[in-house]
Specification:
Helix content is about 40%, strand content about 10%. It is built from three helices and two strands. It has a two-stranded antiparallel ribbon. The chain starts with 8 loop residues before the first helix and ends with a helix.
Length: about 80
């Protein structure tokens, strides 16, 4: 998940694009979800745009109501 300030709109768009290219599913406006590890890629994009401190990576064991996500990711 991320909360990039409005003044860094270009960075927010780049993060959004990168997460989609990584195959992450948009769960909410600035919350993406994936069953696959991608911390290094997220760190890279965040550092490139100097917004890494606005990004939070959460590793969850289970997401309530995630049946459709499991089907989409084929897991």
């Amino acid at each position: 998940m991320f909360d990039v300030p409005e003044k860094k709109k270009q960075a927010r768009r780049a993060i959004n694009f990168a997460l989609k290219r990584l195959g992450c599913a948009q769960y909410q406006k600035s919350i993406f979800i994936t069953p696959f590890p991608c911390e290094k890629e997220i760190d890279f994009v965040g550092e490139c745009f100097d917004v890494r401190d606005h990004i939070r990576i959460i590793v969850a064991v289970e997401v309530e109501g995630s049946e459709s996500l499991k089907k989409a990711f084929k897991v």
